Amino acid sequence: MTIALVTGGSTGIGAAVCRLLAEKGSTVAICDINAEVGDALATEIGGKFITCDVSSLTSVEAAFKTCCDELGAPDYVHLNAGIMTVPTNTPYIPIEDLTEAQYHKIVGINLNGVFHGMKTALPLMREKGGAITMTASTAGLSVVPVDPMYTATKYAVIGFGRAVSAANEGSTVRINVICPGVTDTQIVPDEYKAPEFNVMPTEVMAAEIVDLLHNGANGEIRVKNATEKPAFTVGIPDLS
């Protein structure tokens, strides 16, 4: 029996990943701030809900400790928790009007949360080995003009993933990144769910993520931007 831990696991892509990991035989630690939904999901899949605020290193460390104490050290970790700058379907604000609190919140979850997860997971996983997959976005390879800070944090996650995977090349833990296109989750504004954006069901993204966890290469940056199109990988640009 393998152990998996998913941040942002109560809803959206994270919840779909939790369900598929459980279906494929893992016991899943669902880490999130949404306890009501997370508890229900844990009951559904036979996993364990653990309250976790990824913006707090102390909270992340406590969540991993609970997972290790009650389930075992994880074989698979999906660092998935993420937000956009403002709530779904709220008018986006010019960057000059972005408050310092809004800036720190999105960086705290989208970037610090990944750092906290990686910092905590790696030493716990090295003895038995496994894989860590981070959720970035196609926004980290292009641009989302309505939310520059979301774009910035997703570029950062891709760069962080590339660097940490290179630093750990040859270790027992594979580190890689998934870049979803527009997926039908609660953070996606309605205007991005129009047909031309090829909105994907969360189950489609979950299948790619679980494949990355089980089979992906260390350092792989995988893009999935439409249900009917195969995923592809993106290499480091040739700067020579």
- Read across the widest sheet, the strand sequence of neighbours is 3-2-1-4-5-6-7-8
CATH class: Alpha Beta
Based on the structure given, which CATH architecture is correct? 3-Layer(aba) Sandwich
Structural class: alpha/beta
Q: Which shape, going by the Cα principal axes?
A: globular
Which whole number gives the mean pLDDT? 92
Q: What percent of the residues sit in helical stretches (DSSP H or I)?
A: 40-55%
Element-by-element helix/strand order: EHEHEHEHEHEHEE
Unreliable parts: none
Total number of strands = 8
Rg, please?
17 Å
- Would you give the CATH topology? Rossmann fold
Q: Strand content of the residues, in percent?
A: 15-25%
Q: How far apart are the termini?
A: 46 Å
CATH superfamily: NAD(P)-binding Rossmann-like Domain
Q: Largest sheet at a glance? A: 8 strands, mixed
Q: Please tally the helical runs, counting DSSP H or I stretches of 4 or more residues.
A: 6
The number of domains is 1
